[in-house]
Amino acid sequence: MCTFRCLLLAVALSLVASPSSSSFAQYAAGPAKIFPLERAFPLDEQVELNELRARDRVRHARILLSGGGGRRRSSIGGVVDFPVQGSSDPFLVGLYFTKVKLGSPPTEFNVQIDTGSDILWVTCGSCSNCPRSSGLGIELHFFDAPGSLTAGSVTCSDPICSSAFQTTAAQCSENNQCGYSFRYGDGSGTSGYYMTDTFYFDAILGESVVANSSAPIAFGCSTFQSGDLTKSQKAVDGIFGFGKGKLSVISQLSSRGITPPVFSHCLKGDGSGGGVFVLGEILVPGMVYSPLVPSQPHYNLNMVSIGVNGQMLSIDGVAFETSNTRGTIVDTGTTLTYLVKEAYDPFLSAITSSVSQLATPIISNGEQCYLVSTSINDMFPPVSLNFAGGASMMLRPQDYLFHYGFYDGASMWCIGFAKAPEEQNILGDLVLKDKVFVYDLARQRIGWANYDCSMSVNVSVTSGKDLVNSGQPCLSISTRDMLLRFFSSIFLALLVCIFFSLT
User: What does UniProt give as the signal peptide span (predicted)?
Assistant: First the structure.
């Protein structure tokens, strides 16, 4: 008969043999990783349009500087519903950020979600000229490298540093430490050094089952910041890069089988905002896909035409060319949507002509606006952005217009598309909202479908490995498999226990 000590041994062996919450050998048997997002501007704080465009210009300068070498460029078994803050309203919107935990003991950091950069970096405790408070109503934290029991340095000979040299501005210090220095077009910048430490996240195993998971990752520890990064008004603890580089968190985790090579988001578009960011594939019907443009540092799609009210616009083909400096980028960090001059002018002309008998055009603070007396859905035409592979992004009037108040008793709506200051079209939150977007890195494509982002979502964790998807939530299957493995391991452990008891 097995003793109490032996029973404890059996349980311990079963826990070791079963797939634990902190070690998933294959992401097909593991959960999706969910990151709740929060808005950067308080919901009750109005933001002027010129401030948003100025912020977008800073954002675009950072994107454009990242294109060349040596420069910088998140059982679901059914239903998942994560309350998230954020809004596409140009007067209430802000960048999205989420919370991550690093180190031992873990410290929580608020980091901006950024699909346009590759590195997760947080502010080091030794950082000079760094904000000590934030106007966003959050408490800033600083990474204490000497105080973390699991922190490790990255030397110049480390393969991590070699990857950094390929995708970012890596450099070697006098003490053989792998460092970085990111300089942005707006004059701001950060420098520091790369580290490795434990990264914690919640693994969702079922509707009411949340497991604490962790994995070692490489990230940046910022010791110096300059320019806008030093301002307290919008300060966060760092940037969470979800780009295509080898050192992005999604690349690090998926290459080790911890997560699938796919992530998704759904941004709620009404005034109250909300959304979800998932390391995994959100499953919704009606998804359409367009291939990513190869050999580009960002998430570039090949846009081929723009339609207004079902009619394709006559646009110079140069507007849709893709090169090191041209193309169409999907970027959640940009609020508005930007078109190059060759596409913007025909688009604006087509919209104005379409509503000339129904709305009164007016220029307000330099913006093209319209005075309307009824619902914009009854007056303004649908718009389609058309991409390679036959995928179209259908836009409602509220996806390219924003409400700008009232004038002479009439409601004033303004064009939410702007003329791109550079040669790249950038699809921002205005058109990304109210849609599920899936970044399928295994198949090198981006998919989207209209969706009410206030509703629950189903998430698959098998997509991207075997390139087979049943179209049903797969985590319920993996949860069943985990339970089978768990009880099988208990049975095997008990057999071992009985054997030792008899001997």
Answer: 1-22
CATH number at residue 383: 2.40.70.10
Pairing of strands 300-301, 327-330: antiparallel
Active site residues: 114, 331
Cα–Cα distance for residue pair 469/461, rounded to 1 Å: 10
Q: How far apart are CA 268 and CA 276, in angstroms?
A: 9
In whole angstroms, give the CA distance from residue 276 to residue 263: 11
Specify if 22 maps to a domain: no
Residue 417 lies in a domain: yes
User: Domain range spanning residue 338?
Assistant: 49-460
Give the distance from CA 465 to its chain's centroid.
21
Could you tell me if residue 491 is inside a domain? no
Our count of domains for the chain comes to: 1
Edge-first strand order for the sheet with 337-339 is: 300-301, 327-330, 424-427, 337-339, 417-419
- Count the Cβ atoms, other than its own, within 10 Å of residue 128: 11
Packing angle, helices 4-17 and 475-502, rounded to 10: 140
CA-CA distance, 470 to 461, in Å (whole number)?
A: 11
Long-range contacts of 391-397 (CB under 8 A, 24+ apart): 391/288, 391/289, 391/290, 391/447, 391/448, 392/288, 392/307, 393/431, 393/435, 393/448, 394/450, 395/431
**Is 496 domain-assigned?**
no
> What are the pLDDT tens digits along the chain (503 aa)?
444 444 433 434 343 333 333 333 333 334 566 665 655 544 445 556 666 566 565 555 444 444 433 322 232 222 222 233 333 344 443 566 778 899 999 999 988 877 878 889 999 998 988 999 888 778 999 999 999 999 999 998 898 888 776 555 567 877 888 998 887 656 778 889 999 999 987 665 555 555 667 889 999 999 999 888 888 877 889 988 888 888 998 899 888 887 788 888 888 877 666 678 888 889 999 999 999 999 998 899 999 999 999 999 999 999 999 888 899 999 887 888 999 999 999 999 999 999 988 999 999 888 899 999 889 999 999 999 999 999 999 999 999 998 888 888 899 999 999 999 888 999 988 899 999 999 999 999 999 999 998 888 888 755 544 333 333 333 332 333 333 334 444 444 454 445 445 55
